Amino acid sequence: MYSKRIFAPAIVTVIVWFAMSSVAAIAQSATDITAHANELTGTTLTAHVYEQCDITVPAAITFNVGDISDPTPSTTAAALTVTNVVTVSPTKQLRVSVKASATNFTPSVNGATTWAASAVTWDAATYWTGGTGQAGTLSQSSYTPVVIGNADTAAFSTTTLHFTLAANTGVKRSGGHMLSLTWKVESIDGGDGGDGH
To answer: In 3-state terms, what secondary structure has residue 107?
Structure first.
C-alpha cells in the first residue's frame, strides 16, 4: 500500500512534465513554420452565370362588358416589366409569350355560353422601353409572343399593354367569366421572331 501511494504521484508528475514539453515543442514548431512560410497558388474561383431575368406580369386583366355585341377593352392598360437580363451573348434577345390555360373561359354558370380563349387579343402596346411589342391573339394550343427585348438590353417594359375581348352575343349569363394565363420567357437568336428593333 505504501509503495502505491508514492508511485501514483510520481506518474502524475511525469505526465505533467511531458505535457508541458509537448506544448513547448508545438509552439517552437509553429514559430518555425511561420518563419519559413511558403506561398501556394493554383486555386481558381469560378462563378457560373446562367441566362436569367426577373419578370413582373399583370396579376389580373379585367373586362367590364357593358354590351356583349361590342368588343370590350380591358379596364386598364397592363404593365409588364423584365429586368436583370443576362444572356449568353450580345446578340441574344428575350422573348415573352403567353398562353391560355384552357380553350374557353370558365363561365359564371356551369355549362353556360362563354368566350373562347381566342376572343382575347392585344396590340403591340403604345410604347415599350427596350423592346418591341408583338400584337397577337390568345391561344390554348401554343404560346403567342407579346414582346421581344432588344439585343443586349438589361431591361425592357411597358405600362400600356392593351387587351381586348371580342363581342359575343351568345353570352346569356352575367357574372365573372374567368380564364388563367401562363407566361413564358425564352432566349432567342436575333433573327428568331424579330430583331428587337
So the answer is: coil
* Domain locations along the chain: 1-30, 52-188
Q: Does the structure show a pLDDT above 70 at 110?
A: yes
Three-state SS at 185: strand
pTM attached to this predicted model: 0.77
Residue 79 CB: number of other CB atoms within 10 A?
Answer: 14
Fold of 52-188: Immunoglobulin-like (2.60.40)
Q: Name the one residue in this structure whose C-alpha cell is 381586348.
A: 164
What's the rounded Cα separation, in Å, for the pair 162 and 128?
A: 12
Which one-letter amino acid corresponds to residue 155?
A
Q: In this structure, which amino acid lies at residue 139?
A: S
84 Cβ neighbours under 8 A, 6+ residues apart:
52, 53, 54, 154, 155
